[in-house]
């Protein structure tokens, strides 16, 4: 039988298959939440999604169900691309403008709060899929009113910590130090985690109290979820590390930034690639039979 020879048609078919396969998009994989100071969603999950202890967490479940808590690691915007203020309106910072997480935006003074003080603070972020990017931690300005929805202008423009994240984590955590400024009373620590290998970003609100006093004494001390608690609820999570999981991005996003609805293009590209490979194989088989 004559040796295999590439024909122009076969080369074109193989090239088309490779090109189409390369065009098929890959999915996002980063997820996580702040565990110290304990974020709102982490605190409510630790209390138990089915029977939370604090009134605010009970109200969250009554309003939104338990699913937001089981999906504690998914407060994200898939296509933020660093344009955080453009895609998240004032009053929606804690939920990242996600309807699923709307209760996290409630301006209440009974969110469990971590007691902190000015100076060095060790941040701990539990991640279920580490990725390279930047975590930026902000704190609200002195005079912040916790009875009003959080606005971008409430955040001090100078971050209290900036940490470059990598594709690996230590025992599922990113840990790094920051410096908290002088504050009194109840405040919010706000995290923005922007990936640099994807436009996806994650967000988190942690309630804190500075300087003891009445505000600190009135706030329940939150606990972060244990590894056993996380494992127990994992099967009830709808978050996929091979994608963004959860609900679609909210319609309130700007038209040019809103995540496009599911498109048949990836399937079409994959199907075209498969057809190209099949065609190339068929062409080769026919040629071999003709030359044998």
Detailed description of the structure:
With 292 residues, this protein is of the alpha+beta class. The chain has a single domain, classed as Distorted Sandwich (Coagulation Factor XIII, Chain A, domain 1). It is built from 8 helices and 9 strands. The strands form 2 sheets. Strands 2, 3, 5, 6, 8 and 9 form a 6-stranded mixed beta sheet that branches. The chain has a 3-stranded antiparallel beta sheet with strand order 1-4-7. Strand 8 and strand 9 (201-210) form a beta hairpin. Helix 1 packs antiparallel against helix 8. It is globular, with a radius of gyration of 24 Å. The N and C termini lie close together (5 Å). Mean pLDDT is 79; it is low at 1-30 and 242-289.
CATH superfamily: chitin-binding protein cbp21
Radius of gyration in whole Å, from Cα? 24 Å
Counted up, domains total: 1
CATH class: Mainly Beta
Unreliable runs, pLDDT <50, ≥5 residues? 1-30, 242-289
Structural class: alpha+beta
- Reported CATH architecture: Distorted Sandwich
> Number of DSSP strands?
9
What share of residues is helical? 25-40%
Number of contiguous helices: 8
- Mean of residue pLDDT? 79
Q: How is the biggest beta sheet arranged?
A: 6 strands, mixed
Question: What is the string of SSEs from the N terminus onward?
Answer: HEHHHEHEEEEEEEHHH
Distance between the termini: 5 Å
CATH topology: Coagulation Factor XIII, Chain A, domain 1
Morphology call: globular
Q: DSSP strand (E) fraction?
A: 15-25%
Keywords, separated by commas or semicolons:
292 residues; 6-stranded mixed beta sheet; 8 helices; 28% helix
């Amino acid at each position: 039988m004559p040796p295999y020879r590439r024909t122009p048609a076969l080369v074109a078919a193989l090239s088309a298959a490779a090109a189409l396969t390369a065009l098929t998009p890959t999915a996002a994989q980063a997820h996580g939440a702040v565990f110290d100071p304990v974020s709102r969603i982490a605190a409510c999950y630790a209390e138990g999604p089915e029977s939370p202890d604090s009134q605010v967490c009970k109200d969250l479940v009554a309003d939104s169900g338990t699913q937001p808590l089981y999906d504690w690691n998914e407060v994200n915007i898939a296509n933020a691309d660093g344009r955080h203020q453009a895609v998240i309106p004032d009053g929606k910072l804690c939920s990242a403008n996600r309807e699923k997480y709307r209760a996290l935006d409630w301006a209440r003074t009974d969110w469990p709060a971590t007691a902190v003080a000015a100076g060095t603070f060790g941040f701990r972020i539990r991640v279920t899929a580490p990725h390279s990017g930047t975590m930026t931690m902000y704190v609200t300005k002195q005079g912040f009113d916790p009875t009003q929805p959080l606005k971008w202008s409430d955040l001090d423009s100078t971050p209290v910590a900036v940490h470059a994240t990598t594709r690996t984590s230590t025992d599922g955590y990113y840990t790094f130090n920051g410096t908290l400024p002088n504050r009194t009373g109840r405040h919010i620590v706000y995290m923005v985690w922007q990936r640099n290998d994807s436009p996806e970003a994650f967000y988190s609100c942690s309630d804190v109290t500075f300087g003891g006093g009445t505000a600190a004494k009135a706030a329940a001390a939150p606990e972060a979820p244990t590894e056993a608690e996380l494992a127990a609820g994992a099967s009830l999570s709808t978050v996929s590390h091979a994608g963004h999981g959860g609900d679609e991005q909210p319609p309130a996003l700007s038209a040019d930034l809103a995540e496009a609805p599911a498109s048949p293009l990836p399937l079409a590209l994959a199907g075209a690639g498969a057809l190209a490979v099949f065609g190339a194989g068929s062409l080769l088989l026919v040629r071999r039979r003709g030359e044998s």
